[in-house]
Amino acid sequence: SRTVVIEYRSGSDVIVGRDAHMERDKSMVLWLRTCPASVSEDKRLLSRWCNECLEEALQPFPDRVEIYGLQESSSDWVPDWQLERVRPSKSSGYSGFRFYLERQAFMNICADAEIWACRSLRLYLVTGPPGVGKTEFTIWLAGRLRLPVYRLSLTTPRLNDARLAQLLSQNSMKHERVLVQID
Q1: Can you name the residues that pair with 27 across neighbouring β-strands?
Q2: Which residues are CB-contacts of 32 (< 8 A; sequence separation ≥ 6)?
Q3: Helix, strand or coil for residue 115?
Q4: What pLDDT digit, counting tens, does each position of 115-155 carry?
Q5: Comparing C-alpha atoms, which of 82, 67, 77 is closest to residue 158?
Q6: 1-23 pLDDT per residue, tens
Q7: 150 and 173 in contact (C-beta within 8 Å)?
Q8: Residue 110 burial class via C-beta count within 10 angstroms: exposed 0-12, middle 13-18, buried 19 and up
Q9: Could you give the count of Cα atoms lying within 13 Å of 5 in the half-sphere of its Cβ?
Q10: Rounded mean pLDDT of 80-97?
Q11: Residue 4 CB contacts under 8 Å (≥ 6 apart), including other chains
Q12: How far apart are CA 11 and CA 17, in angstroms?
């Protein structure tokens, strides 16, 4: 039996980023009393424990959908995806604002998306006049696939082809698998 000591340190405010915003410098120190013979094994143990905790913390909530949008971080518009809101997932099993009528066509798209979501880029064009439920369908699908939604408006004034390519690259997104909604 080993005892891991966890010490949290709330540091001071630090100015960061191109826009010079304030963030709090925080640290967590983990330490384990060990001996020279088991130091390598103990390092692996702590590393594995930290990785497992991180993986668990990054798992999406099963009944919520995170929606990310572009935020301007400075006057020269360095685009950054930020969490805008969290919406409850929708289903025919719920009532009220969480109810969503699941039609067979939607189930076919969901089955197709489940197959392709881990392998490659898959595009679905959902069209219709305002108010028919395109956004609600996107939230329903994201909830079923347990993916965050990244919303992008092509009418953003300073969005050009190069920035669009940058925003849709895997490096700019905070998640490995996403559902992108383009308006």
Answers
A1: 9
A2: 2, 3, 4, 5, 42, 45, 46
A3: helix
A4: 776 666 667 778 888 888 888 888 888 888 888 888 888 88
A5: 77
A6: 677 788 878 777 777 665 666 77
A7: yes
A8: middle
A9: 6
A10: 76
A11: 30, 31, 32, 46, 49
A12: 18
Nearest to 90 by CA among 132, 60, 135, 153: 135
What pairing do the DSSP bridges indicate for beta strands 179-182 and 4-16? unpaired
DSSP bridge partners of 21: 16
pLDDT at 161: 82
Q: What is the DSSP letter of 91?
A: B
What token pair was written down for 100?
């969503």
Task: Give the pLDDT score at 34.
Answer: 82
**Residue 180 burial (10 A CB sphere; 0-12, 13-18, 19+):** middle
